[in-house]
Specification:
The structure is a homotetramer of 347-residue chains. With 347 residues, chain A is α/β, with parallel strands linked by helices. Chain A has 14 helices and 12 strands. In chain A, 41% of the residues lie in helices and 18% in strands. In chain A, the strands form 3 sheets. In chain A, strands 2-8-7-6-5-3-4 form a 7-stranded mixed β-sheet, sandwiched between helices. In chain A, strand 5, helix 7 and strand 6 form a beta-alpha-beta unit. In chain A, helix 1 packs across helix 11.
């Protein structure tokens, strides 16, 4: 079977395994105090032009989201998220378990707007008893979104402004950041992200690492005591080197964006061919995730060879599926898939 | 000013104060072990024909909701609620603070249907990774709802059936139960509630008590260790007698339903007159809460004499207000209000 | 039976019931915004010479402790308490449920010292990985302690100094504050408490109220958003008047200290007589709680008439009991108890 | 510098890296559903003769402890632990953050006894208000303990019996399990552990894995819905293969115990030589951790070459240090250390 169902089907990019092996027998301090973590932190600060930032490495996305939000919120404060946000639909209520209400806003292509955020704040503070509902304090967005779409630079800065006006933190889930930064048409840079966000993370798991996310706290107020919160959530890895080495490898020499660009290229190949073949897409995604509507009979045949994610039924005879590529996807597999689709559709 | 803004503007029904005074110097055990609590518990079990039930007394509604849901849910389980449910909009995220996700369903007149609940469960269990979203376990409804409307006996039993099918608990917030039970057209009895619900509470605060809600746990599985959870949330009153005596007074000789009936009568007097005068209502409520659309100019003048709750603007020139009566409302005040409205509307 | 087992066996001081009845039919705003709460707040600020303080009223002690500590602590911070502190032994882990570790220090007569606190901080900050244990942030003490003993003014100010040195908050549980303030030999005043503590509460439940504790937040940094935390824990009473009126009554004309003084007087009568009769006491308490060692055969006979709290067995033939008086204790009952003890002891 | 300060200074055992590289490009399902996780689970069940057990893989120890305890405890229940237990002193209050009180018992050489546990339960249930303190429900022990010592088979079965008598779960923290199982004099087997414990984990991080702990739930009641709790705490790794492959490698062909035996051998070499040289040890440990008292002047010189953990000052002129070996320790380094110590001590 050829897997197009997610971007974490393989292990790690070979350079990562190589680097892990090379350094394997070095005796290093634990808990992220090793030189590789230190270098990776510096590299990230340089990339983002954010010398005041603090960087921490955490094993996975859900743990990162719950740890960062534990740090950003007081118990009675809430996080504003698109209703399709990962924290709202795919983390078993981890944020609520952490004690916080999620204000889930209707999304447009996976995104929310500054106006929507402003309205939430206005509604809250205009209530005669604001203290009877949770106080909005963080805006959570993903880049790319769950549907592979991107905020423009303009949209991102508009969110920053509304956060400033209403005393909110902006937190970006970058589990797939590399795909976004390298997407055709993207006008958002590392520096833009570091400038706009109080906190964000650089996803490793979905971009060629064995595991790991790099949290960047650009707002100095959030840096103090962050490691207490990490430790308390089980988010400090004893062998922190495993994360530091991986991020160092990924971020040196632009590998991270190269891996993203490759996956995007393969995905867009499939997208363009499917469009030509008359298939419809739910969102206009320039990145590695493509949501398309597939006739069930075609799907059934394809699934003898390929694995996709089923999103939901679409009417009686069609299904929305997600095709997802990665750093490890083969262009030939994509071409074969395209050929098979065309043939089955009789195009 | 004459207050029609809520049902807790006065102190307690005079009989309650009398009973508190009469028993004041009796030396009694604390924490709900006094004979008044014991008698009140028995009275409630008799009223509901629920000899196996357990009854506990708690100070207020939010504390009751969070305590009961802490008892009913494991950490990864969620509660299904109408989006307008009190737990979802008026308790500062107390349920999320307790660790639980609320599945907020679109309401119809403040209610949710058995079909909606079934759909949530189906969606959850059909997911290929159900453990990636919280597991639905409790259905939370209010009787009357936040808009004063009522579930019919048929609707209530349909919810019970869907709970049985999907292994859910049914929990009824009865903060205003007395208004519902005594409403014209209501076909739901104490026994129906005890039969259908695994847990519910009988509201005192909004029905003539100084404070207090009586939790009824009809499902024996929920009874064990409930007092641990109460104590841990600060929900066991040292002088439990204060709650026991009040519920004993309210529930003896049918006082509770009489107080509800009085408030309903006054509310419906206002409703019928306003309808005649051409005002529109958002919901068809047979109980003490009435949501109507009031021209802003009329409202402004009325508010020199009366206090209402503002719900939200309705277009540019009107406002949705809530008129709320109570056991203590005076029929003459209602008549004066009606006369004033008619005069201001020129009817 | 005559109850000497606790200080909440009766209802409320009669003046309180009177005042509740007098104001009962006044229509007032809810949630603590009524004029009685406002007046009670002002009265407390005047008493304490703390014009910048904020005052809030909460139903009971456990709820107060968990609400205040939720406000004072970030998730990874801990509270230092004597191991015998109420939060550590008598609240079903409410503080842990709130997410916080308690650093339980060995007590001396129910108290902890500034030196002990300093040592905890030193140990924490000298650790090479301080973030691997909770960060100490609050010192919790009771006045009087669980054993009826008192901090001297000097001890209290020493705790304040150590808190300043280590950036800690000082929080006093004053569930029985009135007994302490009116005790013979006490040199701590209202103003001392307000000066030394960042937060404290004035107990009503155990000093003649039906229920209620008045939280005083003297540190302005703690005041913002406190009501959110209250509401989220179910700690804002709808009919806030019930608490405001009671504290107004208790604190006007010095009633609060008078009630404390009466209870102390009765307790010391018993203490002195028992000492004369040769009985031993565990602690040297000048307040309403007395812990004494009673021969089991005498105890058994006394318990045909009186109720005491059993603390623990003391060897094979004796038991530590607590005798506890209150504002409502009768001097005659105490004299009868003394006579009975003497007779049974053959003195 | 040569590190003897912990057992996670190196990366992974080379076979693990090899196996990760070999399988790296296989496309596998995520979240622990890959064949390597499945095989590792089966291997563990075979090793333990526990065909009904369920096995889950988690990144680190703190996360494992908090996830398992979240699954084992209701909100008002507590866990009994030696006061030196990892959960009590080295996890930043993670268990309290999860909502639970830890009953910390005085340890003997890092262990607690069945009698101590029985006493806690007796005290709890004999209280006249048991619901005023957390209900003991889990016994947490470590094997080896934090001091390298071991429970004997007899001690372990005694704990099982007391758990059965008082309806408790027994949970073993096996972060260093391999060192215990392979220690000279140890009489506890895989099967004994699976028989006695309701849940335990097999530590990978401290025994040659890059990261990872394998949780074994032998009690079927604990298995249902465990993955919900994992996911909610961020404890399901997307690339579960990373953990499955490591445990498969470690547990095949007895590698795990071999690695433990090697570390123990090196540690005991040091221990025996130090004893001969007249140094004193705090505990009699047969495993890879040795706690000894070192003159400060000697220590200072040694620390020009070696890294140890400082535990605490011991009088004015000595320090308790921990010497910790691992699968990767070199016998020659140990011999050099011994020679250096002897020379510095003039032996």
């Amino acid at each position: 079977m050829i897997r197009f169902n997610c971007d974490y089907s393989e292990g790690a990019h070979p350079l990562i395994l190589e680097k892990l092996a090379q350094t394997n027998l070095e005796q290093l301090p634990g808990y992220g105090a090793d030189p590789y973590c230190v270098q990776a932190e510096q590299l990230i600060k340089d990339l983002c032009h954010a010398p005041e930032a603090a960087v921490h490495f955490i094993s996975g996305g859900t743990q990162t989201n719950l740890t960062v939000l534990a740090a950003l919120l007081r118990p009675y404060q809430s996080v504003i998220s698109p209703d399709t946000g990962h924290i709202n639909v795919h983390e078993t209520g981890a944020i609520e378990m952490t004690g916080h209400h999620i204000v889930a806003l209707p999304h447009q292509d996976g995104k929310i707007t500054a106006d929507q955020v402003a309205q939430v704040c206005k509604n809250h503070w205009q209530d005669e008893n604001p203290e009877f509902s949770p106080q909005p304090k963080v805006v959570y967005i993903s880049f790319p979104t769950e549907f592979g779409t991107l905020y423009s630079k303009e949209e991102l800065f508009a969110l920053r402004r509304v956060c400033d006006e209403h005393n909110l933190f902006l937190f970006m889930d970058g589990a797939r950041l590399g795909y976004g930064l390298s997407a055709p048409g993207n006008d958002v840079s590392w520096t833009d992200i570091a400038t706009c966000c109080d906190a964000f993370y650089i996803g490793g798991t979905k971009l060629g690492a064995l595991l790991g996310e790099a949290v960047v706290l650009t707002n100095p107020k959030l840096q103090k005591d962050f490691r207490y919160i990490m430790k308390q959530r089980g988010a400090i890895l004893a062998k922190g080197r495993v994360l530091g080495i991986q991020f160092l490898t990924l971020l040196q020499d632009g590998l991270y964006k190269k891996l993203g660009a490759h996956a995007n290229k393969v995905a867009l190949l499939i997208r363009d061919a499917c469009k030509q073949a008359g298939l419809k897409f739910l969102y206009d995604s320039p990145t590695n995730q493509q949501f398309l509507i597939m006739p069930n009979d075609v799907l059934k045949k394809l699934e003898q060879t390929y694995v996709f994610s089923h999103i939901r039924p679409y009417g009686k005879n069609e299904t929305v599926i997600r095709i997802c590529t990665s750093w490890a996807s083969h262009e030939e597999d994509a071409k074969q898939l395209i050929a098979d689709i065309k043939q089955l559709l009789g195009k």
